[in-house]
Write a structure and sequence with these properties.
Elements: H1 75-84, H2 107-116, E1 126-129, E2 147-150, H3 155-165, H4 193-196, H5 201-219, H6 222-235, H7 238-254, H8 264-274, H9 282-291, H10 303-308, H11 310-315, H12 319-329, H13 348-351, H14 380-386, H15 392-415, H16 431-439, H17 445-452, H18 458-471, H19 474-485, E3 498-500, E4 515-517, H20 541-551, H21 553-559, H22 562-571, H23 576-590, H24 594-602, H25 606-616, H26 624-639, H27 641-649, H28 652-656, H29 667-671, H30 675-697, H31 705-716, H32 721-727, H33 730-748, H34 772-784, H35 786-790, H36 803-822, H37 839-849, H38 857-865, H39 873-883, H40 887-917, H41 929-936, H42 938-941, H43 943-965, H44 993-1012, H45 1023-1038, H46 1044-1054, H47 1057-1069, H48 1082-1101, H49 1108-1111, H50 1163-1166, H51 1180-1200, H52 1215-1225, H53 1231-1234, H54 1236-1259, H55 1268-1272, H56 1276-1290, H57 1295-1302, H58 1311-1323, H59 1341-1344, H60 1351-1363, H61 1367-1372, H62 1375-1388, H63 1397-1413, H64 1418-1425, H65 1432-1449, H66 1454-1469
Antiparallel strand pairs: 1-2, 3-4
Helix pairs in contact: 2-9, 3-5, 8-12, 12-16, 14-15, 15-16, 15-18, 17-18, 18-23, 20-21, 22-23, 23-26, 25-26, 26-27, 26-30, 30-33, 31-33, 33-36, 34-36, 34-37, 36-40, 37-40, 37-41, 39-40, 40-44, 43-44, 43-45, 44-45, 44-46, 45-46, 46-48, 47-48, 47-51, 48-51, 51-54, 52-54, 56-58, 58-60, 60-63, 63-66, ...
Length: 1472
């Protein structure tokens, strides 16, 4: 569908706004050169609500891919050029574009090239106006305006241009008839310049020579070529040869899309291996927005920066390597099934043919807009350009290709391994880069799809909606949320892409800062809201839309007003397929963010339209669009409680859930509907029950339980499975049964306290405990058939297609029972139960009778030996978790285990509480075995089973936290601005069942840890206790935004007083502890536990609040709304989007910190000096106490890390972070190390880390281990200045403080950090306060070897020597003077350092001049000369050699030589 944008032609009446000026320019393949007799009429333009950026005829540039885009300054000139040549192309007159003054994204290429290119790149480019290629074809599509930018000296670009244009030179009014089968290069005469622009004859001559050279080389044998090369090398001057080689290499780097048949991806890969920066300047503007959209200009990364960013590689990728991968994806071609087409075209050099020999015009493909017309397949940009064709079939074809590519890429991504980093040797298709490029800003895919939605052909609209579905990952996201519904709480999480904010110096530079949205929520507004006060439209609207879409595709679509278009399509009675797809897209938008959900709710009559579509089908048949309609309403109701209440009051809830009450007659009547109808009805009922569950959680419809319960009875009771097996409907039936029990679980959470009901049952129509017994009976009917249904005694042989659905069902049953049991509690937690409901022992006996647990150690051991058998249901579930290759089956087994464990814990707790009320035990009755087990305690009797399961899950969690940590990127949460799974991370990243499985394992393990606390005092100091603590630490690294309660439980376990006491015992027993005196009472442990728990909860679990500035933004005018950027320089002011509801059941990734970084436990000593860790200015005493507790906690974790059998996450934290934390805690003040206990612990940590540093230094000889600037923060020098200033002010030469500062002078520290530390210490005149070399951390060789090679550091040493900063350091034996003497002596007196003669001379002259002025430094010079001269026999000889070196360095300077003689006499004879 076309659109009139209201623009007028300012050029005059010569250019008529005819219908032919609106048509596109892409035509079908093989079209004849002759004009057809009847030209098809173009579609008539119509007015739409969305003013598109330009007409479809304004396709993408026909310029080569490497050609620079032009700036806005030339737009007026381009329009004049177009008008001059309109007579030659009267049939294609595109609409005049609005002038873009400020935000043309293509100008980024010019800005980047201007700052990075050499003189050759800064030359003027020649504007060549494109005209029609054939009378029979419409205008060639170009992105505004129709011009090409070609460098005049680039022969390859000109050849490409001519090879594309030459077959149609007759149509341009030229006098020459150039054949398309010519065997020589095409020369353009001066008469052609009117249509193609001026061409230099020399360029054409270069083309001829080049082609002839290639043809000649093709006829020569390899021996002849080698002989000719040798002959040329002998005759040419070597200097000239080097110049020519260098120029040839530069040309090869710049050449792009010049030789058809040569793989562009291979050429880019070769260039990327020879260049230290991005492949081309264009990628800076294209991919700079794909990862960091707030940056308008990205500078190239040099080779030396690659070492700096090695830590980024551990987080996912290096920026420059990732950019090269995406650039390579730019040139890939795809078939219509989405596969990459291999480049099988033979180059001209290989065939001996010339450039113009492409065959007849019918063999060319003029649907191409870039690259080689004869190549197979389409690039992504070509497909997007084809989507703007005038022919509807071509538009559909292009959109289907895009949908296939995106669907293939997304499925390949989800099938890959989580945290996978692609290696350079990997030659497989890089789908990760393909996905990122397609969603990036360069192709402008979102804008093209938004324009395609306005098409007047239904097939084109449907095809565009299918592409949007792939773009938003609709299908895979819904699969993920279906599994998420089965998890505990059933809370959704918004899918908008996010990124971490930068670490702040005030918070110790620790990672794990708040997440932010890639596209700021205030930018997700439809463009028509951006109307200026005078009523004029913002001229930069489309640029802003494209910019936001480059950050977040869903945000870009909403900003481009997709919701009104969806509403319009729904009102026009679309086809069933289009209707279902449109609602699916709307669901993805609603799941995106609070802003998008609010946009849907605010749009008038949108929900009413959805309900109207649902009501149109009054039959029992279920349509897929009805399922999606209920799902959409459920998502919106879960987002906002008030919306849910409104749905119930307005009758919307009743209108979309009436099917629930139609399938209650019998199982036979449901089966008779047919397999397909049963599947659809099952899916619809599942969504309706989930809608019920959302309403119950929001406090609605609780009183309607008597109305709903009869309708659910068919699905609550266990049926006959013979009919279900015959019709293959077991999964569908069990899914409905599972959702029915989850609805009952939601009802159970609203039960009142059983023992507070002193009144009789309330009036009818209410939900109370009287309905619980029949509900429990239905659940027990399923438990009794569990051995027959699952057949767990057969082990792995019993697993079938329906096993997963059955396990989800039993998980729902166990969850429902456990919630009911947890609601049975007295008024006080310590009070015994007045009586025990009879269904409690009934549940326990059913669990024992049907072997859900194993109560015989012998039976367990026997089944353990035979892996094909399982003794109990719990063992079977554990077996599936370990052996299953399907994540969903393993996840279902874990959730079933979780529900079973909750149930048996509640049963034992209730029985023990009721038994404590009894004065004497009941006697006189004979108990059966099952009753005896129940009386003794289910947990105690099943100890063997529980111990085995607990140990298994500890191992799983300990190995899974590293997988979760490997996903996170410190730039963006994902590689592309998609939604949910569209974040682009391999394996789905955070949106994968693998991560859900790890989080489910952690949740179950937390339950086992809670159970184990009963016997916590019996295993003090044991390996088992340390394994539990290590697994609890690992749980903190696995938990996601939905798992705050899990992290709090882990904090409680690790920080409880008993655990801290155990850590103190580990410190005392550590062999590395020199002298440790620790006197701490039980009250002190409680106090430390409380302080640490409060700090960690506030630091890591508290969400971001609302800032003062944003509490008063109501007065901002709408007309001033602009495109806001995201400040990435540190922590943003506390922010919370106004659309996020306090009572929402949906969780945001943004504004929280989960998952925690591995070094989260360092925050107690890394951020205590800042007031940002608390609501107000912290008290100094509070900070000091937190710091002391943090030092103790860190020392305990370090000393206990080697006691357990499982690896501790503490050991995975890099050493550089631990040294940094020890420096940060000193900013609190000297009180931290004046306390006796804390001082001992601090000294213990220093010694420990010093030993670790020595071990690492021996294993890695030439690696900078302590990369403070690279790994922690680029502005680390600022932090160093703070540390040195504090050291100079309050330390008074304290040894511990001095040892910590001296670590920055270690040779394994980055040279830039060493230089900053030395400069700060020298300027502060505190070098003499540093301890001696023997008292520093680690061995002395670490500060001396390898010899300093950085001249800046050596100059800093020399400056400190000459300015007097080292005078006292020399007298006191400071490490500073020892370091200076060693490195200066090694440089000056080194025998092999002949290439450093100038540096040696400079150092010697400075030292001798200083000696002539400051005679008291003669002793320092003598130490320099006599440093490590050897034994007594070699001492004099070595001194004489060194003095001779000093004499030669004086270079005949008489004054220096005189000083040299004085020094010599003292050094050799001892005379002064």
């Amino acid at each position: 569908m076309e659109q009139s944008s209201g623009r007028v032609n300012r050029k005059g009446p010569n250019v008529l706004a005819t219908a032919s000026s609106l048509v596109g320019s892409i035509v079908e393949k093989g079209i004849s050169e002759n004009k057809p007799p009847n030209k098809p009429l173009p579609p008539s333009p119509t007015l739409l609500s969305f003013p598109v950026a330009r007409h479809r005829s304004h396709g993408l540039h026909w310029a080569p891919a490497g050609t620079l885009a032009q700036s806005n300054d030339h737009e007026e000139e381009e329009e004049e050029e177009e008008e001059r040549f309109m007579n030659a192309a009267a049939f294609a007159k595109p609409l005049q574009r609005k002038e873009k003054k400020h935000m043309d994204l293509r100008t980024w290429k010019d800005m980047v090239s201007a700052s990075t290119s050499g003189p050759k790149d800064s030359r003027k480019v020649k504007i060549i106006t494109t005209t029609s290629l054939s009378v029979a074809s419409p205008d060639v599509p170009t992105t505004s305006p129709n011009t090409l930018l070609v460098k005049p000296a680039r022969a390859s670009d000109q050849r490409e241009f001519l090879s594309q244009k030459s077959p149609f030179s007759n149509d341009l009014g030229t006098e020459e008839n150039i054949s398309s089968k010519a065997s020589t290069p095409l020369a353009v005469s001066s008469s052609i310049s009117n249509g193609l622009g001026t061409r230099q004859a020399s360029s054409c001559l270069e083309s001829d020579i080049d082609v002839e050279n290639h043809a000649r080389l093709q006829t020569m044998s390899p021996e002849e070529i080698a002989e000719a090369q040798a002959d040329l090398l002998d005759k040419m001057d070597p200097a000239l040869l080097n110049i020519l080689k260098k120029r040839g290499q530069e040309k090869m780097k710049k050449r792009k899309h010049s030789v058809p048949g040569v793989s562009i991806a291979e050429e880019a890969a070769k260039n990327s291996r020879t260049e230290a920066h991005f492949v081309t300047p264009e990628i800076l503007s294209r991919q700079g927005q794909a990862v960091t959209p707030s940056t308008s200009l990205v500078m190239p990364i040099l080779k030396e920066k690659c070492v700096v960013q090695k830590s980024a590689l551990a987080q996912g990728f290096l920026w420059d390597a990732w950019t090269e991968r995406v650039e390579a994806a730019r040139d890939l071609r795809f078939s219509f099934d989405g596969n990459v087409v291999e480049d099988d075209v033979v180059s001209a050099a290989e065939t001996g043919e010339k450039w113009s020999s492409v065959g007849s015009a019918a063999e060319r493909d003029f649907l191409r807009t870039e690259g080689d017309p004869g190549a197979a397949g389409y690039t992504i940009k070509e497909a997007i350009a084809l989507a703007r064709s005038v022919i509807p079939g071509q538009r559909c074809l292009a959109l289907h290709l895009l949908a296939s590519v995106l669907d293939k890429a997304l499925n390949k991504l989800c099938g890959s391994r989580i945290g996978y980093t692609r290696e350079e040797k990997d030659k497989s298709t890089d789908w990760e880069a393909i996905w990122a490029y397609a969603l990036g800003p360069e192709p402008e895919l979102v804008l093209a799809l938004r324009m395609a939605l306005d098409d007047n052909h239904t097939s084109v609209v449907l095809a565009s909606v299918k592409v949007i579905q792939c773009l938003l990952s609709c299908s895979l996201n819904e699969n993920f949320f279906d599994i998420l519904e089965n998890m505990e709480h059933g809370r959704d999480i918004f899918t908008a892409p996010v990124f971490r904010s930068k670490p702040d110096i005030d918070l110790g530079f620790l990672r794990g800062c708040y997440w932010k949205y890639s596209a700021k929520p205030s930018n997700i507004v439809p463009f028509r809201e951006e109307i200026m006060e005078d009523g004029t439209e913002d001229t930069e609207t489309i640029q802003k839309d494209v910019f936001v879409a480059g950050q977040d595709v869903a945000a870009g679509l909403v900003r481009m007003d997709i919701l009104p278009r969806i509403y319009h399509l729904l009102e026009t009675e679309p086809t069933a397929a289009l209707e279902d797809s449109i609602i699916s897209v709307t669901i993805a938008i609603a799941r995106h963010s609070p802003k998008c959900a609010t946009a849907i709710l605010k749009y008038p009559k949108f929900v009413q339209t959805i309900v109207k579509i649902f009501k149109l089908n009054k039959r029992m048949d279920v349509l897929p669009s009805q399922i999606n309609s209920v799902r959409l309403l459920k998502v919106l109701a879960r987002y906002d409680q008030s919306t849910c209440i409104e749905f119930v009051k307005n009758g919307i809830f009743n209108a979309v859930t009436w099917h629930l009450f139609q399938f209650t007659s019998s199982l036979d009547s449901w089966v008779k509907l047919g397999t397909q109808n049963c599947k659809l009805s099952s899916t619809l009922m599942v969504e309706q029950l989930r809608f019920w569950k959302v309403c119950i959680h929001n406090g609605c419809c609780v009183s309607r339980f008597p109305e709903l319960f009869p309708a659910l009875c068919l699905w609550l009771n266990c049926p006959s499975f013979e009919k279900l097996r015959e019709t293959n409907l077991i999964s569908e039936f069990t899914s409905m049964s599972k959702e029915a029990y989850l609805v009952l679980e939601a009802f159970a959470e609203t039960l009142p306290n059983m023992y507070s009901q002193n009144l009789p049952r309330k009036e009818s129509g209410t939900w109370d405990w009287s309905y619980v017994s029949p509900m429990i009976d239905s659940a027990l009917s399923w438990i009794s058939l569990a051995p027959q249904l699952l057949e767990w005694e057969r082990g792995i042989e019993s697993v079938s297609v329906s096993t997963t659905s059955l396990l989800w069902l039993y998980s729902g049953i166990m969850r429902t029972i456990s919630v009911v049991l947890e609601k049975i509690s007295p008024h006080g937690e310590e009070e015994p139960l007045p009586w025990l409901p009879e269904f409690v022992p009934k549940i326990g006996l059913a669990i024992i009778k049907h072997k859900l647990l194993s109560f015989s150690v012998a039976e367990v051991s026997r089944c353990r030996k035979d892996s094909s058998r399982c003794a109990s249901f719990m063992e079977f579930l554990c077996f599936l978790r370990e052996r299953s290759q399907y994540d969903e089956l393993a996840l279902a087994s874990v959730r079933c285990l979780h529900g079973l464990m909750r149930t048996i814990v509640s049963i034992q707790t209730l029985i023990e509480s009721a038994r404590s009320k009894m004065k004497t035990p009941h006697q006189g009755s004979i108990c059966t075995r099952d009753e005896s087990v129940l009386a003794k305690g289910i947990l105690a009797e099943s100890l063997a089973d529980l111990t085995s399961v607990s140990s298994s899950f500890r191992d799983s969690v300990s190995s899974e936290w590293s997988i979760v940590q490997s996903i996170e990127l410190h730039k963006r949460g994902g590689l592309a601005p998609g939604v949910g799974l569209g974040w682009g991370a391999s394996g789905g990243g955070f949106w994968s069942t693998r991560i859900l499985l790890a989080q489910a394992d952690a949740g179950l393990l937390s339950l086992f840890l809670n159970i184990s606390q009963m016997d916590a005092h019996n295993d003090q100091g044991s390996v088992c206790l340390m394994d539990k603590m290590n697994s609890a630490l690992a749980m903190c690294l696995i938990a996601g935004p939905r798992d705050h309660l899990l992290v709090e439980r882990a904090f409680d376990y690790v920080l409880r007083p008993h655990a801290l006491e155990h850590l103190a015992c580990c410190i005392k027993s550590d062999e590395k502890t020199i002298s440790f005196e620790w006197d701490c009472s039980e009250e002190d442990y409680r106090r430390m536990s409380s302080m640490l728990a409060s700090h960690f909860r506030h630091r890591w679990l508290q969400p971001k609040g609302k800032s003062k500035a944003e509490k008063g933004v109501d007065g901002v005018k709408k007309g001033t709304v602009g495109l806001e950027t995201i400040d990435e320089d540190g922590e943003m002011p506390t922010y919370s989007t106004p659309d996020q509801k306090v009572d929402s059941s949906s969780i945001e990734w943004a504004h929280q910190r989960m998952p925690l970084p591995p070094h989260w436990f360092l925050s107690a000593i890394s951020a205590v000096h800042s007031g940002k860790t608390s609501a107000g200015p912290p008290e100094s005493t509070e900070l000091l106490e937190v710091a002391k507790a943090g030092v103790f906690f860190l020392a305990g974790l370090e000393s206990s890390s080697g006691f357990g059998s499982l690896p501790s996450p503490v050991l995975s934290v890099p050493l550089v972070w631990k040294f940094h934390a020890l420096s940060t805690v000193l900013l609190v003040g000297m009180d931290i190390i004046e306390d006796k206990n804390t001082r001992n612990l601090y000294s213990f940590l220093q010694e420990l880390y010093g030993q670790v540093l020595d071990e690492a230094r021996l294993n890695h000889h030439d690696i900078e281990i302590l990369r403070f600037k690279s790994d922690i923060h680029e502005n680390y020098s600022t932090f160093l200045e703070m540390v040195v200033e504090q050291y100079a002010a309050v330390s008074y030469g304290d040894v511990l403080y001095g040892r910590q500062v001296s670590i920055y002078l270690h040779q394994r520290v980055e040279s830039s950090v060493r230089l900053s530390a030395w400069t700060a210490l020298s300027n502060a005149r505190v070098l003499e306060l540093l301890p001696g070399l023997d008292k520093c951390l680690g061995k002395a060789d670490g500060y001396l070897e390898p010899v300093e090679e950085n001249e800046a550091v050596l100059e800093a040493y020399l400056k400190s020597w000459t300015c007097g900063a080292l005078d006292r350091a020399a007298a006191r034996g400071s490490v500073a003077f020892a370091v200076v003497v060693h490195h200066l002596s090694s440089v000056v007196f080194c025998k092999e350092a002949k290439e450093k003669i100038s540096l040696q001379n400079k150092i010697v002259k400075s030292l001798m001049r200083d000696l002539s002025r400051k005679r008291h430094r003669e002793g320092m010079m003598l130490e320099l000369v006599g440093y490590r001269v050897g034994d007594a026999m070699e001492e004099r000889k070595e001194k004489e050699r060194r003095l001779e070196v000093l004499k030669e360095a004086c270079e005949g300077n008489s004054s220096l030589l005189s000083e040299m003689e004085k020094l010599k006499s003292v050094a050799l004879c001892g005379r002064r």
